[in-house]
Amino acid sequence: MSYLSREASNLPEELWSRVDSAVVGAARRALTGRRFLPIYGPLGAGTRAVPVDDADALAEAETGGLITAQGRKFVQIPTVYEDFVLLARDLESAAQTGLPVDLSGAERAAERCALKEDGLVFFGSAELGYDGLLTVPGAKKIARQDWSAGENAFADVAAGVEHFTEKGVYGAYALAVSPDLYLQLQRLQPGTGLLEADRVAKLVDGRLYRTPVLGKGRAVLVACDAKNVDLAVGQDMAAAYLEQKDLNHSLRVVETVLPRIKRRDAVVVFE
Q: Which domains are present in the chain?
């Protein structure tokens, strides 16, 4: 039996295809981290752990005739999931009328799963020992000025880019901001004819993103090349079959993912 256990159900292939489309479409609209993080994988659902390197400390060391890698740890890939139900009467009605089954539940589950993934990307999990972009120890912290006034936002982000230059962190940059800060950037700068958002976006080659996961008043600048940070994917997001209970079908949107921050100098947090 496969990991997704679809063969345990009597749901037709055409319905599974529609569920897949609904899940993937909803997730793509909701996900933010994957828009700028390189993907490592998919490695398969059976991949339980991946190496997470400290790029600045990685080296081989010999002790008592044994060689090991320093600056490397193996971290378990967590499972992210959300459940939903397909009602038996809805399926029967669709079969009788020829109308498509309403898959709003699958889309909502995919959206919630996507937000959980982004929560892991940006905040990690202190309880489980996972680092996120805003919580990784050693990241550069910059006291955020009032982004609703003057050129403060541009100056702060420029300072973050300057930090990357000083540390020799080159490549592509991306800026993720909370919705309130994004709205503060939607104003014309006097004498330029440009929105502050446009000026800031030019510093990161257009890679400016907003995400509700950040809450309010938060922003993070990332040097997002794979040598600095990526997202390890075991099982990519998909729908799995759980059981039939009370005639209804229980399904699960499931994935296994882990953000890997390899160079802490590649992250600037605006507080």
A: 6-132+230-261 (3.30.2400.30), 140-223 (3.30.2320.10)
Chain-centroid distance, C-alpha 117 = 5
163-198: pLDDT as tens digits: 999 999 999 999 999 999 999 999 988 878 889 999
Given the structure tokens 């009597």, which residue do they identify?
10
CA distance 2 to 68: 36
Size of the chain in residues: 271
**Residue 109 corresponds to which tokens in the numbers above?**
């589950």
**Encoding tokens for residue 194?**
């440009």
Alpha-carbon distances of 252 from 20, 113, 118, 243, rounded to whole Å: 12, 10, 18, 10
| CB-CB neighbours of 266 under 10 Å | 27
Coil/strand/helix, residue 248? strand
> pTM of this prediction?
0.94
